[in-house]
Amino acid sequence: MIETPYLLFLGDAPDQLAAKVAIGIRDWRPENALGQIRLPGCGADLGLTDMTLAEAKAAGAKTLVIGVANRGGVISQAWKKVLIEALEMGYDIASGLHNLLRDEGDLVAAAQTHGGTLHDVRVPTVGYPIANGVKRTGKRCLAVGTDCSVGKMYTAMAMDAEMQKRGMKSTFRATGQTGILITGHGVPLDAVIADFMAGSIEYLTPDNDEDHWDLIEGQGSLFHVSYSGVTMALIHGGQPDALILCHEPTRTHMRGLPGYSLPSLEDLRDTALAMARVANPACQVVGISVNTQHLNEEDAKAYLAKVEAQMGLPTVDPYRHGAGRLVDALAAI
Amino acid sequence: MIETPYLLFLGDAPDQLAAKVAIGIRDWRPENALGQIRLPGCGADLGLTDMTLAEAKAAGAKTLVIGVANRGGVISQAWKKVLIEALEMGYDIASGLHNLLRDEGDLVAAAQTHGGTLHDVRVPTVGYPIANGVKRTGKRCLAVGTDCSVGKMYTAMAMDAEMQKRGMKSTFRATGQTGILITGHGVPLDAVIADFMAGSIEYLTPDNDEDHWDLIEGQGSLFHVSYSGVTMALIHGGQPDALILCHEPTRTHMRGLPGYSLPSLEDLRDTALAMARVANPACQVVGISVNTQHLNEEDAKAYLAKVEAQMGLPTVDPYRHGAGRLVDALAAI
Lengths: 333, 333
Hints:
2 copies of one chain form a homodimer. Chain A folds into 2 domains: 6-120, NAD(P)-binding Rossmann-like Domain (Rossmann fold, 3-Layer(aba) Sandwich); 139-332, P-loop containing nucleotide triphosphate hydrolases (Rossmann fold), CATH 3.40.50.300. Helix content of chain A is 36%, strand content 17%. Chain A has 12 helices and 11 strands. The longest helix of chain A has 15 residues, at 265-279. The interface between A and B is large, with 42 and 42 residues.
């Protein structure tokens, strides 16, 4: 668990895109985002109050979250100065960077001296069990994609937000570093040891109230040869009651794999459902989430209508039109 | 790479079953097994020459291989005495034990002093790449199972041995600790970090001659919820040209999962083949390997004939009747 609220460190982010993690926190957990802190030349702006470390501390900030990618994979001296000062003031620091805070001697020393915690959210800190497949109480929904990076996290986040708004019981369950930083907890599944992948998802989505839904963040794709094993572990460890199919209609090939075309939504439905029913025979595919960011409004609507007719399932772009119909579908099962 | 030949350490194995790893080495790589060394009270006997460390060293042994499970997960003082003496004499030591040689200070010290290597084959020592899915030259065969522990390693080993006998080009590719100790190299797949699983199998089975076959050791099962992700990574990283279906007909439920029944061979065929064709559209299911150890000869023959008629594929128990027909089927594609 990462302590909230956060002060969001944007460093010297060249542009808004580099601050993706911070934007996610601001959009999905605004109550966690007290303010932002930027270095000279920073090209990103979350529209939050710019605060010094001292101001944010006085306002109650517990953790400085690195909400930006670093250039060249190096934690620069300019960053270090802020991070060490933060530790000296009693902050914890949380990071999803590839290079780890814990590998920086000066940060480790400052954290030890001042009693702060360094959260490297890419690295598992729990000894996960091997999955036992025992049926758990409560309900679970998993987003599965025709490809990587087609909007699975966004879909689960948007559904969770809609369910909260309706007063339904739900929890977004993060399985990647962005989701973990946004919510403060989760499993960094891509860094878990092979034998414990499914078990880590059982751990993440324990017994719950019968009317509670876990919205599990998907990873990879059963059809992406680099990461399909991770996806499979999510399907079997998550033992979902409901699947949402996620798709990006303008992809010409699988992400990072020029020789590989995308599966059809029918192939995804049939394959993922058959695999999910091994762990949960009652599993159903309840809806389709399409990322239409590269289509204009008219084309997007036409595409969604076509897929809805073809697949016989509610089909929406939750970013454009909200996740309401997907939540309706969940509520109906 | 573990240096051969080996002296096989049986320690105080309570019985023959505890010496499974050593038996595998003796059976599959007899040329690597110079002799055995046993402690008082050892209940296992490989039928190899009992040798002292000095005798085996004089005969050319390079590595002392721990061919036995230890009791209670502790490396006892009685074992330590032999292991340290071996290091002092210039041996390397190889182990697939859960508790690692490298975590034993006295072994590490002796290895450093005398220049020996401690091989803990459960732990990856290579920084594997992320899989790129690029088609590789040469051919690959993967054994996939209806369940864990149904004879996938045995099947691949037996096929490799048969192919060697026929003068075909083949290599057994180990993906678990027993296979790695037997052959001296491989990937301990169940200990690889999730993101690199498929990449580790690409690394293990690189470009090769067009008429060369890798016989890849299978792991887990697509239908075993604890380990299905590992199996999926093998299917996509291995990009097999041929699949062998493996089955044990007397299992009443999935291994370790009392609530889970086994899939049919048809389900395994259809699911594994569809997934394999994502990475290699030319993949075929070529044969079936049945572990009939719990059936008498008559029942085994009847069962094999029934499955062969039902599935339309050569169906054998390679332990009872040899792997010849499976190799015939491979050679025909």
